[in-house]
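Our example copied in:
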Amino acid sequence: MERTISSEERIRRAEELYKQRKTYQNRGNVRVASSTVKVGANSNFSLYKKLILQIGICLLIYFIFFLIKNSNYIFSEDVIKKTQELLSQDINFEMLYQAGKEFYEKNIQGFLQNVTNISSDENVQTNGVVNETQENVQTNQIANEIQENAIQSNTAQENTVDNQQSQESQNTEAETGVGGEEVAEPVQISQMEIDANEIKEKYSFIIPLQGTITSTFGSREATEIVSANHGGIDIGADEGTTFVASMEGTVSYLSSEGDYGLHVWIQNGDVETLYAHCRNIYVQEGQQVKQGEIIGEVGSTGRATGPHLHFEIRKSQRRVDPEYILQF
């Protein structure tokens, strides 16, 4: 038979087991976590938290009821009366149905019919336009045929007249022995145009600087700074902007004196190009320069109203308008 253990015996054994575990912990031989011993304390703390939370919720509910009860607006006499009046009215759903049905028949159904009629009218108009277009095409074809026939007849008449005139001209030439053609007078061109044509045939040029043309070749209104007869073309640009050689050649002359300010001449055969009013020049006298090579910077030195590049082309010391050779 199994021995029955009393409650006192169980408590005594539990206390002995607790003492043994406590002894192991003090010696450093911990076999169980210390949290297992404090289960009762943690559970009591959680119960306290739940109790405090419930008390707070009850207080909040009580406070809400207190506000509702003492509010003069939510349960005022006017609100109560209007609520009673609204509840006392009987709602006749049959009348509401009839009213909705009448509204649909008068407004929505009529609107849908109008939309359908408009669509059908548009289709009819479209068909009419198509038919009219076809009739116009046929009419235009007939008119074109008539016009072509008229043109052919006119052409035949003109050919007949031309043949008659040609025959008369041949007869006249046979009688007179003269060709009958008028000798065209020779076109007079200037020396500048002759020089420009020869330059374009023998040499290659490019625009030395992309910018705004501020003064063209030829006569202009003179001032204290600007001359009356301009021997080149002025290209406006910001000071310090670089420019390139318009044609290849040799640097024949470099100077900073005179009205041109700092300027450089590049020569190829009997053709020279001038770049004036510069701020800086990158080449030296006697240096060979390739077309498109950077040779200087735009400035306003010498007799100049502002920063720009004065560009000239000369053939055998004769000035040529750069716009005869290049398209700026």
About this structure: The radius of gyration is 56 Å. Residues 30-37, 172-181 have pLDDT under 50 and may be disordered.
